[in-house]
Design brief:
The complex is a heterodimer of chains A (373) and B (571). With 373 residues, chain A is mainly alpha-helical. Chain A contains 14 helices and four strands. With 571 residues, chain B is of the alpha/beta class. Among the domains of chain B are: 5-224, P-loop containing nucleotide triphosphate hydrolases (Rossmann fold), CATH 3.40.50.300; 228-308, Alpha-Beta Plaits; 401-474, no CATH class. In chain B, strand 14 (325-336) and strand 15 form a beta hairpin. The chains are: A mainly alpha (373), B alpha/beta (571).
Chain lengths: 373, 571
Amino acid sequence: MNWPCRLLALVRKESLQILRDPSSILIAVVLPGILLFLFGYGVSFDLKDSPICVVVQQPSGPAASLAASYQASRFFKVETDTVTSRCSAELVAGRINAVVVIPADFADRLAGGDPAPVQILVDGSDPNTAGLMENYLAGTFRTWQAIEAGAEGRPSFTPISVVSRVWYNPEKESRRFLLPGLVAIIMTLIGTMLTALVVSREWERGTMEAMMATPLTRAELLLGKLIPYYLLGMAAMAGTSAIAMLLFGVPFRGSIWALAGVTSVFLTNTLGQGLLISTLARNQFVATQAALFSAFLPGFLLSGLVYEIPSMPLPIRLFTYLVPARYYVPSLQTLFLAGDEPGVLWPNTLAMLLISAILFTAVVRKTPHRLDG
Amino acid sequence: MDPLIRLEGVSKHFDGQERPAIGALSVALEAGRINGLVGPDGAGKTTLIRLMAGLLAPSAGKIRVAGLDPVAAPSELRRVVAYMPQRFGLYEDLTVLENLNLYADIRGVVGAERRSRFDELLAFTDLTSFTGRLAGRLSGGMKQKLGLACALLKVPKLLLLDEPSVGVDPISRRELWKMAADLVSQGIAVVWSTAYLDEAERCDEVLLLNAGQVLFAGPPGRLTGELAGRSYLVHGLGGSRRAVLERALALPSVIDGQIQGASLRLVVADGAMPPSPVELEAPSDATVVATEARFEDAFIARLGQRVRPHSPYAERPAVGAAGGPTVVAEKLTKRFGAFTAADDISFSISGGEIFGLLGPNGAGKSTTFKMMCGLLKPSAGHATVAGYDLLRAAAQARARIGYMAQKFSLYGDLSVRQNLNFFAGIYGLGKRRATVVGRMVEAFGLDPYLDSDAGRLPLGFKQRLALACATMHDPTVLFLDEPTSGVDPLTRREFWGHINALVGRGVTVVVTTHFMDEAEYCDRIALVYHGRIIAEGSPDALKASARAPSRPEPTLEDAFIALVEGQEAAE
């Protein structure tokens, strides 16, 4: 019985290669680092200091007070003017995102009970930002209205008063759900991209042929690849989570065990996909492209990390069920922001296990006994 | 006793290929000897070795290796068979020792057995002082030896070596042969595949393959014996040997001819008399003497085809005057950090001369070659081509250079026509493009293949196309990088026929090669070692310098080894 010895030899060989090969370091350390940096500092779905223009057509007490409350908001960076023409030109030029026009008869219309006495113009070229702008601008107006009404001791025009309380992410900071989701992308890089790359490289360099001519079994060859990249993936998950928590202040409310368990299951998905690609492609260039388009981009775009799945068209929404990251991203967000929620974790984990079973059946069927199949 | 390997009616057919890679092969290979698997590229050598290693399943027929069926019992087979693929199977980012450890673990060689086996193998392969070096940083010869050591960790019954001598200089090649002979004396059967026909003579038993068919099976002496009394050398030809070769090949009695240094080597048809100097219109002091037959002579005779090279280049107008220096290297030096790859290299090549750069792996010949064709900038010294300085007037110099890389750098997925048009565009032929491409197509008979992908051409046509692409702008100087290594002898003869015609028009040819037969075509050879030229002269002069009582008729390979070893002793 010397299979443990053989397996250990393969794992040791692979680890040495990972440490020495610049492309492995690039994919396993440098790329995740850049992504963390981008998502931690660069990408944000929050509105902050968005440039707008407030046009006060005729000075009056309420108009000045409303303009001041826009200026006080941390969401906007406000310029004021007395005519619309310059501001709308700025809006067309894309230098500002919205124009709030407080009309000359603002005070009268307000007194007369007009529910929408201001005009809001929003740059709609980016629908996401436009929607956000519209809500925040209108919200600021309503808040001002409520405060004014309270101060004068008369009832607010809004018939129902909404007091919202945001759970799990009370500051509504987008990095708190983006960074946990990023772990999924990094696992995809390591599991699928790196694995596909190294296995196809062995085919290209002829080392796979040499290995096949030794007493190694197919199971040993496959495990010899799975184990080191599984460990690398877990290490990357731990590193990324630690950075998200310590550097970016993302809370972690679940348990380490649940995180390790769910991540292990997801890694079997990405590793299986990587092995399958490299077995079919046997060419580094094709394998990288295939990994990029079948794992990395879907993980990014179709996992619900960047775009909401419920707002996708039906065919795309159905397609997302095939993307393993779709199950992993919500699990991560739940573990980080909410805690061990069996109602979220179990269905997602079971779905990933199912995908793993399918992928590994394909890998075992497609891994050749000989060079010609 | 049952033979170690028995093949009965074995054939292997790959999808999408018309001709089977191996066609109905029946042969038995015995233990205790070196079995040569000899043939040009595409003959089916690798396929046959992979069939024996159980890495491919035969399309038809029966294989038994060491009493086992390689397809039904692969794991039992792999315990007794060691296989070294063409690219060694080494992990380049692991050290020598780490590679050995990996294979030892895989083959279950542990404890005291491992230590003693490592000591033996490291001594055997002369790698003891390199155990900490990355395999990727070893020279070609050392990689082969390490590959061999990895394959031999568990003493096998059968060792399969797929082209172990490719990319290996003559010195390492001789060492590898010694090692193989050692293994055979320990009772291991060795199968050694090679495209170099001269290696066949070193085998105990030869299986000569061509296009998937066996041309000959048996001891090599039996094949060369058939040719006894039919090989001749023509001496005393002076500068006219290329013209005489062309006339000799036109005679019906001559079935093969080749330039060998300053002489010609001719093989005559069965029962024919050797041609007289008068028939050859050779100088009056020329002599025709009988010589020992070589394996290659026999191979050509077996093939029953012959090349009557009539090169289209012969009819083209001359390129400048022959005689003056066209390629000059003056104190060329190239340093990579602290390492000096080429050190103070100077030579001058005249128009109409074939100049060879030879040397062991890593000696600096490729570096020199690259500086000469303007691909690498020298650290000191300078090079001129056709009067243009490669540094200051690189564009003008390059317009006069033709370059043909090893393994034909054509675009395999473009058609023949597209390749020709592309290179015509590169050389800026402009309006002359159609005429020039048309002339090349006609001259090289490429018409039937115009719309086939270059990658799918038969080898001979690939080579013609590569040469056409490299010469369509009528270069004054042609650089060739191992142009015919691994190519079958007929294709090689045709190729050198064209080169001879080019040289006849005053074109200068610079060749770098490991391949001694190619070196024999040169007028002059520079032997590069440790970045310096250690010997320069005609092939015959170099051979003469290696003459010793123990070696009255040294080959060029003997001369190469003697000169390098002499230099090593002096250092």
